[in-house]
Design the sequence.
């Protein structure tokens, strides 16, 4: 087990380094950072595009400029404001329910107490809210508090499955919890953002651009896709540490 853990850590270091060479190291300012507002934003991000998420958030903040005003709004008013983001009724219920509970338990609208909690306990608290899963909790913990949480969205899940870093049957939550302890110190944010960028621009759900991928030399699926296409991978590691090469079938065991 210890050897497998070291192997995964080494493989993630290779991936992180190759992505940084291609995309650089992104700053961690991609999301609203004030914790309660970030909670609202990440709830709005569920099952929608970034542009629709941002439009819904902007409309919500224009109509209810303060968290106090938002918490006092009627569900129908919140639904109307965020409708562009989709699932308006469910998201309005989650947002208003979370704000009501935070005020009841904390005497105000603050999540700053999470900063002092162990990561696992802070995540457990957030995921106890209706409509808040591991991805939403990890985004808040990473971007608002700088904790070493590792959010996994559909792009990150797709890429890490193709790389063989997580099992094919992994869910978003299972992948996040299995990868998180093995991401290098200070790499949780840059690796998360770079994997998303790779998934959007290169490692697409259909017709991935394997020939253009900075991870081709360490991606088993990419190398299989490129067989017979006459393109040699650029020099570099030929496989991720701990990922065995596939042996050719020579007609005998």
Sequence:
């Amino acid at each position: 087990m210890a050897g497998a853990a070291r192997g995964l850590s080494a493989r993630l270091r290779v991936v992180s380094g190759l992505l940084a060479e291609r995309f650089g190291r992104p700053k961690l300012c991609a999301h609203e950072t004030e914790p309660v507002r970030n909670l609202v934003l990440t709830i709005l991000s569920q099952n929608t595009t970034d542009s629709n998420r941002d439009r819904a958030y902007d409309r919500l903040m224009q109509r209810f400029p303060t968290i106090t005003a938002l918490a006092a709004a009627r569900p129908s008013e919140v639904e109307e404001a965020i409708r562009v983001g989709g699932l308006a009724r469910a998201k309005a219920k989650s947002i208003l329910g979370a704000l009501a509970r935070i005020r009841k338990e904390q005497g105000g609208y603050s999540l700053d107490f999470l900063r002092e909690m162990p990561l696992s306990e802070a995540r457990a608290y957030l995921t106890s809210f209706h409509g808040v899963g591991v991805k939403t909790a990890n985004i808040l913990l990473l971007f608002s508090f700088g904790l070493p949480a590792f959010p996994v969205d559909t792009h990150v899940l797709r890429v890490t499955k193709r790389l063989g870093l997580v099992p094919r049957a992994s869910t978003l939550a299972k992948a996040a919890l299995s990868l998180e302890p093995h991401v290098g110190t200070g790499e949780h944010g840059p690796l998360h953002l770079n994997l998303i960028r790779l998934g959007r621009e290169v490692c697409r759900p259909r017709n991935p651009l394997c020939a253009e991928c900075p991870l081709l030399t360490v991606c088993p699926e990419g190398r299989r896709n490129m067989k017979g296409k006459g393109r040699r991978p650029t020099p570099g590691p030929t496989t991720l540490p701990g990922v065995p090469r596939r042996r050719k079938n020579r007609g005998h065991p």
User: Anything to note?
Assistant: The longest helix spans residues 2-23. The radius of gyration is 21 Å. The CA atoms of residues 7 and 242 lie 5 Å apart.
